[in-house]
Design goal:
Blueprint: E1 6-13, H1 15-21, H2 25-38, E2 42-50, H3 62-72, E3 78-81, H4 84-87, H5 91-103, E4 107-110, H6 120-153, E5 166-169, E6 176-179, H7 184-197, H8 200-210, H9 218-225, H10 247-263, E7 277-278, E8 287-294, E9 300-307, H11 309-312, E10 323-324, H12 325-353, H13 359-378, H14 384-403, H15 413-420, H16 433-443, E11 444-449, E12 458-462
Helix pairs in contact: 7-8, 12-15, 13-14
């Protein structure tokens, strides 16, 4: 072996397993760290997903995603797990991850089970084991679903996550979903206000202003207004709980929301600066919205605007300014070339004054240093503590330099070509909105509002 094996320890335990079998994070951690030391592995990091079942989506297992990111960054040579079922119980997910590990030459092993994937018989055994684990998981899932269905039929709660106005109460074996006296009026006002205004925005703002102790978001209001629990129905079981509104009223509200949703889709406007405009208040990318003006003859002329969703939908930002797209576009056309010229001049000035060093050369020198460290350790000229320290520091420096863009790699040619064109932006107005958007995306990283004049003055950040 050319170097000490760098190991990443992956631990997973679901809430149910921890309660039932005592498979705690700490017990797995202790066992796997001791096992790694007994095999002379260098433990790089420990990745622990707590409260996650093996069937949880990969995208929701944050520590597993962090582990895979370190695999891509060459921080790990081997992954250690307790048993195969800590890794996956889904055959398809397993092979997706295995393809990634194969690509980066990273292998894995279990501390309490033996698997040999280098032979056809070993791979067959692994497939059988995974298939059995998935089948057991499927059967467990079916049993849980059956139990939940039985609980719902008996009008017992299966979750503590309830919409505003409801709570779980009662003895352990006789719990029921009942009205929450502290938030009942808020639930009543939500339905009354929506029927009065026919607007989700107005309803959200009303609840935000009158019930600040219970912050609520636009999407939550939309979902709750359509939740069948408020008319006493849950999973096709009538009279599941005490209703707030009648079924007829609930259907009427759902139809209004559906109708309003269709109206909002009538315009097919393409937003030129979608994803580029940044709110000065909270920093999020501002949303493109359809607006219109009504002419004397009744014709509606649609145009684009940009606004902060955190203000207009969720009442979580003070920026209530709406940017007209045609005003922003005029400003960009009038200022783009001047701002671009200043940007190119500033970058070139920095390049002239700075001694540029190639990161590629520095990375190569560090990789040569890694080879020397390995040779010194193999020859016994440095101890393991010194080897670990120097090896980790060198690898971290390589990783930093690999991510850091070198200033000499900044390509100004496309900006200079835009400046040198004799016609400038003369052809811009002839472009479709799709092509206009592509044009801005080519050069612009983001556009920030000027807080002193947020609807008519902006700051451009180039890529």
């Amino acid at each position: 072996m050319n170097k000490v094996i760098r190991a990443g320890i992956y631990i997973r335990v679901s809430t149910e397993e921890q309660a039932k079998h005592g498979y705690s994070i700490e017990s797995q951690r202790t066992r796997l760290v001791d096992w790694a030391k007994s095999h002379n592995y260098q433990v790089v990091d420990i990745y622990a997903d707590e409260g996650k079942s093996a069937r949880t989506k990969i995208s929701n297992r944050k520590e597993l995603l962090r582990l895979l990111e370190d695999v891509k960054n060459d921080r790990i040579d081997r992954i250690i797990i307790w048993r195969l079922d800590r890794w996956f119980r889904n055959v398809a997910d397993y092979y997706r991850i295995q393809d990634l590990l194969d690509k980066f030459n990273v292998d894995w092993e279990c501390s309490d089970e033996e698997f040999n994937t280098s032979t056809s018989n070993g791979r067959l055994y692994l497939n059988i084991k995974l298939s059995i684990a998935q089948n057991e998981s499927d059967q467990t899932s079916d049993r849980i679903k059956f139990n939940f269905e039985n609980m719902v039929r008996n009008k017992r709660p299966i979750s503590g996550a309830l919409p505003i106005g409801y709570m779980v109460a009662g003895e352990k074996q006789n719990k029921r979903v009942v009205k929450d006296p502290n938030l009942s009026q808020m639930a009543i006002d939500m339905f009354d206000k929506f029927e009065e205004t026919l607007s989700l925005n107005a309803t959200t703002r009303y609840l935000h202003d009158n019930y600040p102790q219970r912050p609520i978001r636009y999407e939550s209001v939309k979902k709750m207004l359509q939740n069948t629990l408020y008319c006493g129905k849950y999973r096709d079981v009538d009279d599941y709980c005490e209703p707030y509104i009648s079924k007829e009223r609930h259907e009427k509200i759902k139809s209004i929301i559906k109708k309003n949703h269709r109206v909002n889709k009538r315009s097919n406007h393409v937003f030129i600066f979608s994803g580029l405009v940044k709110c000065y208040g909270c920093g999020i990318r501002m949303s493109g919205c359809n607006s219109y003006r009504k002419h004397a003859d009744g014709e509606k002329i649609y145009f684009g605007t940009y606004r902060c969703a955190n203000h207009f939908l969720d009442c979580r930002c003070d920026n209530n300014h709406v940017i007209m797209e045609y005003i922003l576009e005029d400003w960009m056309v009038n200022h783009f070339l001047t701002k671009l010229e200043s940007y190119v001049f500033e970058v070139e000035e920095v390049l002239d004054k700075r001694e540029v060093k190639s990161n590629a050369r520095r990375i190569k020198d560090l990789q040569d240093r890694l080879n020397r460290i390995n040779e010194l350790y193999i020859d016994g000229r440095i101890d393991k503590e010194k080897y670990d320290s120097d090896y980790i520091k060198t690898k971290e420096k390589i990783s930093e330099l690999s991510k850091e863009p070198t200033i000499e790699l900044r390509n100004l040619e496309k900006y200079k070509k835009a400046l040198n064109k004799s016609n400038g932006l003369a052809l811009y107005k002839k472009l479709t909105n799709e092509n206009k958007r592509l044009f801005w995306y080519e050069y612009i990283e983001k556009i920030e509002q000027n807080p002193n004049n947020p609807t008519r003055d902006f700051v451009i950040f180039f890529k």
